[in-house]
Each structure stands twice: as C-alpha cells, then as structure tokens.
Amino acid sequence: NHAGARNFVTMGSTPTLAAREGAPPAWHFYYFDRPVSLRLDVTRLAIRWNEDVSSASRLSGLTDQVDASLPLRGWSVPFVDTSLQSQGGIMELVERTAVAAPAAFVSPVFLSESGESIVVSQELIVGFPRGVDEAEANGVLARFGAGELLARDWAGMPNVYRLRSAARSGFDVLQTANL
Fold first, then answer.
1. Which residues contact 22 (CB under 8 A, 6 or more apart)?
2. Cβ pair 124, 176 in contact under 8 A
C-alpha cells in the first residue's frame, strides 16, 4: 500500500511475503486497513464474458459444469478440470483465460475466513487521509496504474476513489490493489 492511501474493501495479494520458497502467496483483501486472509479455491473460476456463456466449454481447462450456487449477474462460474486443480494450475488458467477473446475478465475464486466465496472484480476502492489533495491523490493513482476513475468522494466519503482496472485478470487487480 502507498503510505498516503488507505484501503477500504480493496483486494490484494502479496506473494513476495511468502516466508519460504514454494510457499503459497499470502492472498488477502483489506477491510478498512485490516488485512483479511483468503484461501484460493482451486475448483472454480469466475468469468465475465464478452459473448454467450456457452463459450466456457470451448476453453481448455474448464468443464461444462457451472456452479449455480454463486449467482453473479453477467458472470459464469465454471468448474476447473481436475488436472489443473492446484495453485499453479489456477494461476496459469486465469492468465490464459484472461487473454481469450470471449472473456472480458477472469477471477480466481477465493474462500474467506468464514468459508464464503469471494470473487475479484475490476473495481478498486482507494481512500486517502485528510490533507491529501486531489492532485496528489490523482498522481498516486496514475503512478500505480490503478485504472479509470469512476467516482471521486465515492459513496459520500471524502478522498475515497472508485476505479476500474484495465486488467483482465483478478490476480493482476489483486496485485495493483496492494501496491
């Protein structure tokens, strides 16, 4: 996180914090400056499509079955082929699927500390402390390539910015959120 910014419900990962080589990344999101741990679900992906959702079955590594228990309007949540159900397999599949023509955005599915499914979107919420003026905040957001500004003083909160990342991978959005 940038010293001048505070996180609200932004998502992030800090794979560089892994204590030993080969250790899994410490995936997490922030809820008002408090990191909340996430566990990677290696059985599902969440995909927002540019085209008809039947495109899922045409992509290698995904099954024809969709998880209907996670209703996300405009998204599908296909199950991952068992041969790719590992951290490395999911990371590779997200990146490969994110560049596939029918996919607008691809997110891994995470499980919260309480076991709830969490999907990363392209939106980031970033807050700055009082005293940080608009020009300084805009400079920080531009320097880190946070994305397109959708709202300033979002939800009536001063110095809180809502942005849309240009990234097509949830892992990329997570990384940007924690810069």
1. none
2. yes
For the CA atoms of 177, 9, 94, 114, what is the dihedral angle to 10 degrees? Answer: 130
Here the tokens at position 148 are: 């397109």
Q: Find the radius of gyration of the CA atoms of the chain.
A: 17
Token pair 């199950």 in the structure block, residue: 79
- 10 Å Cβ neighbour count for 105? 24
Helices (H), 37-169: 87-98, 134-143
SS (H, E, C) 81-114: CHHHCCHHHHHHHHHHHHCCCCEEEEEEEEECCC
Q: What is the pLDDT of residues 89-116, one digit of tens each?
A: 999 999 998 887 678 999 999 998 889 9
Main-chain phi, psi angles of 5, to 5 degrees = -115, 150
pTM more than 0.90: no
Q: What is the pLDDT of residues 13-42, one digit of tens each?
A: 333 323 334 445 578 877 777 888 899 999
